[in-house]
């Protein structure tokens, strides 16, 4: 029963109670006038009055219990809505981005096996459905860049000035792009000269020098000049995304000669 409905019912009951009291007063007067015939009527009124008193007390107790339960119910509803928001965020963003990344990694694995087959006939002649092939450690490719997406709570924790019109989808899509940039650079750093296009060889040498700098060594990184979309671009939105990710501890930046180097970081 809602508080308003309970109050209205209580008012009606009090009004009925007052009417009964008025009737009782009239009966008392009647008893004084006709003492021999009024006893039975007064007993019935007394019994009805006691029953009404018990009903009023029961309604008061129920109303008190429900009033105390309202704050607890509100807290439970708020907690449920927060949990629902988190689950919706995970179901919408993480699976699609992870699936896209796994597809890329699978394609890279097939390409690596094809190259290994060309260089090592023994490996090329093995069938995938047969016994598992032990890949030499020295031939292992670079590890995949991390995909540390942000959560809805992290985005909401930012000031409205910093967040602007950014959405969770835009920021996490940009993280996907940054991982792709870093992976391309890692492959270029490890690739032998004969497999690097002539137009990219100078950049490969530059990336190798950057990769040996203290603070960058052993980490995934990309250059500001690598940013070409499809989701992250060097426009106002892209700059806002980089500011947010730097504030949330997903990236850091350093200068190396004329390059602005952006390093992928594990969340704090």
Question: Could you explain the architecture of this structure?
Answer:
There is one protein chain. This protein has 268 residues and is mainly alpha-helical. 65% of the residues lie in helices and 6% in strands. It is built from eight helices and three strands, in the order αααααααβαββ. The chain has a three-stranded antiparallel sheet. The longest helix is centred in the N-terminal third of the chain and has 81 residues. The radius of gyration is 38 Å and the shape is rod-shaped.
Per-chain topology:
Blueprint: H1 3-33, H2 39-119, H3 121-124, H4 152-157, H5 160-163, H6 168-190, H7 198-211, E1 221-223, H8 236-247, E2 251-256, E3 259-264
Antiparallel strand pairs: 1-3, 2-3
Helix pairs in contact: 1-2, 2-6, 6-7
Low-confidence stretches: 122-131
Work out the helix count.
8
Structural class: mainly alpha
User: Major beta sheet, specifics?
Assistant: 3 strands, antiparallel
Average the pLDDT over all residues and give the rounded result: 78
Shape: rod-shaped
Run of helices and strands? HHHHHHHEHEE
How many E strands?
A: 3
- Please report which band the strand proportion falls in: under 5%, 5-15%, 15-25%, 25-35%, 35-45% or over 45%: 5-15%
Alpha carbon gyration radius: 38 Å
Which quaternary structure do these chains form? single chain
Percent helix range: 55-70%
């Amino acid at each position: 029963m809602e508080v308003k409905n309970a109050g209205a019912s209580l008012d009606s009951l009090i009004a009925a109670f007052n009417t009964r009291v008025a009737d009782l007063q009239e009966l008392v007067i009647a008893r004084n006038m006709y003492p021999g015939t009024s006893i039975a009527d007064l007993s019935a009124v007394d019994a009805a009055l006691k029953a009404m008193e018990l009903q009023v007390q029961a309604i008061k107790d129920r109303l008190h219990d429900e009033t105390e339960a309202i704050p607890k119910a509100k807290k439970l509803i708020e907690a449920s809505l927060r949990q629902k928001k988190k689950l919706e965020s995970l179901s919408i963003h993480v699976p699609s981005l992870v699936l896209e990344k796994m597809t890329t990694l699978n394609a890279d694995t097939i390409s690596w096996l094809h190259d290994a087959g060309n260089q090592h006939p023994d490996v090329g002649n093995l069938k995938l459905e047969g016994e598992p092939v032990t890949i030499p450690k020295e031939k292992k490719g670079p590890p995949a860049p991390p995909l540390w997406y942000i959560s809805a709570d992290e985005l909401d924790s930012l000031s409205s000035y910093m967040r602007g019109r950014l959405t969770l989808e835009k920021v996490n899509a940009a993280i996907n792009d940054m991982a792709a940039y870093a992976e391309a650079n890692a492959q270029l750093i490890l690739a032998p000269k004969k497999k690097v296009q002539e137009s990219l060889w100078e950049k490969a040498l530059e990336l190798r020098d950057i990769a040996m700098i203290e603070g960058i060594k052993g980490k995934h990184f990309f250059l500001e000049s690598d940013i070409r979309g499809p989701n992250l671009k060097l426009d106002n939105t892209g700059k806002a995304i980089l500011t947010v990710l730097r504030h949330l501890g997903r990236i850091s930046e350093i200068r190396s000669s004329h390059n602005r180097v952006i390093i992928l970081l594990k969340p704090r």
